[in-house]
Amino acid sequence: MNQRIRAFLVFGWQEALSCVFPVIVFSSLALSHYVHFLPRYDFMLLVCVVAQAVLYLSGLESKDEVKVIFIFHILGLVMELFKVHVGSWSYPEDAYTKFAGVPLYSGFMYASVASYMCQAWRRFDLRMIDWPHHIPVRIAGALIYLNFFTNHYVHDVRYVIGVFVCVLFRKAWVVFHIEKKAYRMPVIVSFLLIGFFIWLAENIATLLGAWKYTYQHSSWQMVNYQKISSWAFLVIVSYIIVAELKMLKKDGD
């Protein structure tokens, strides 16, 4: 078999394995339409909790990775509570495990991004080249996360932050390994690629009724393209948290 084709196939297989938890989340979304013994949102929460327990006990996720996923679950829930409160989107169905209009399973959709990143980091043995200094990187992550909240009250400065991020990571590369052979791409490109594929997944999620934007209540419509940048920025926050924690652990070893 041609070496490039083999590398592509191995890459695809490892990507698929890295997406185990996101696949479980989306599969259960589809399956939930046929479940009648529990409200859909409660069923989703049950599936997500059981899936995380199985992934951890089976060794597919480590203790440190579960901690990262928990952090993302909390960050995601906080954002969901705020966004639902201001009317950005809604969860129209009833459930026992809803708080302030937000089903508790929703945090796992953010956690699934963290699960993918942790899995991919390990499976591809990721290495960062010319990663910027920790302080400006953490400031960039904090600014992006805060802007998700403040843009409802003051001007949305995501693109100003985006310029800052591009300048900050302009020299940074991510090295990944396929069968011990090293490949690399600019970190900024990886931000955009992951954000784009999450946007595609979001279209599937809204089609399956995971949540609805205001313009989707009468009939389903494609999620607007601006959300690609929103997901790309969320990916940057996720990337920064996972990378900084990995580096912190490595320095502590």
Briefly say what this structure is.
The protein has 253 residues and is mainly α.
Describe the model.
Strand 5 and strand 6 form a beta hairpin. The protein is globular and about 50 Å long. The protein is mostly helical. 64% of the residues lie in helices and 9% in strands. The strands form 3 sheets. It has a 3-stranded antiparallel beta sheet with strand order 4-5-6. Strands 1-7 form a two-stranded antiparallel ribbon. The longest helix is centred in the last third of the chain and has 27 residues. It is built from 9 helices and 7 strands; from the N terminus they run ααααβββαβααββαβα. The protein has one domain. The mean pLDDT is 85. The termini are far apart.
Low-confidence stretches: none
Give the CA-based shape: globular
Total DSSP E strands: 7
The assigned structural class equals mainly alpha
Estimate the helix proportion, in percent.
Answer: 55-70%
Helical segment count: 9
N-C termini distance: 40 Å
Mean pLDDT: 85
Record the strand order, biggest sheet: 4-5-6
List the SSEs and their pairings.
Blueprint: H1 3-18, H2 20-31, H3 40-57, H4 63-85, E1 89-90, E2 98-99, E3 102-103, H5 107-123, E4 127-129, H6 134-150, H7 158-168, E5 173-178, E6 181-186, H8 187-207, E7 212-213, H9 226-252
Antiparallel strand pairs: 1-7, 2-3, 4-5, 5-6
Helix pairs in contact: 1-5, 2-3, 2-5, 4-5, 5-9, 6-7, 6-9, 8-9
